[in-house]
């Protein structure tokens, strides 16, 4: 589930990059349709990933080390990122986006950095 959620978080901003550069109306509508479907698809996956993570945390309730709290904070940040994607999608739908494709290219890197940090925390457990 987490992998599917991340796939959506990687691909949705990539669609935003293309939307920000697209001058053709038909292609813009097609990309917008793809982005909307992708967002609606990955939102339940996010909820399942969060529910399974909470379930595992409760099931194996042990003294919670600091690295796990950092991981939880990063996941909360990802949830915020997910909701920010919805806000950006609404701006594209309303044709009020004011950001360029370069901004969306940088925005697209945020989940990659969080994923790297989470993997390091889980493997190394500092």
Give structural notes:
By secondary structure, the chain is an all-alpha fold. It has one domain (2-124). Helix content is 84%, strand content 0%. It has helices spanning 2-21, 25-59, 66-94, 101-107, 110-124. α3 packs antiparallel against α5. The protein is elongated.
Keywords:
126 residues, mainly alpha
Relative strand content: under 5%
Q: Please, how many domains?
A: 1
Mean pLDDT: 93
> Could you tell me how far the N terminus lies from the C terminus, measured between alpha carbons in angstroms?
25 Å
Helix content: over 70%
Question: How is the biggest beta sheet arranged?
Answer: none
Secondary-structure element series: HHHHH
Shape by Cα distribution: elongated
Which structural category do the helix and sheet elements fall into? Answer: mainly alpha
**Which ranges are low-confidence, i.e. pLDDT below 50, for 5 or more consecutive residues?**
none
Number of strands: 0
Number of helices: 5
Determine Rg (CA atoms, Å). 16 Å
């Amino acid at each position: 589930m987490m992998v599917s959620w991340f796939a959506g978080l990687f691909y949705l901003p990539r669609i935003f990059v293309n939307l920000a550069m697209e001058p053709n109306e038909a292609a813009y509508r097609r990309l917008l349709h793809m982005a909307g479907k992708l967002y609606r698809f990955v939102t339940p996956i996010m909820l399942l990933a969060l529910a399974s993570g909470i379930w595992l945390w409760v099931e194996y309730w042990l003294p919670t080390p600091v690295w796990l709290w950092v991981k939880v904070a990063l996941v909360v940040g990802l949830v915020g990122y997910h909701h920010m994607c919805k806000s950006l999608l609404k701006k594209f739908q309303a044709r009020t986006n004011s950001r360029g494709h370069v901004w969306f290219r940088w925005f697209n890197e945020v989940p990659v950095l969080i994923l790297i940090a989470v993997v390091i925390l889980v493997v190394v457990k500092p």
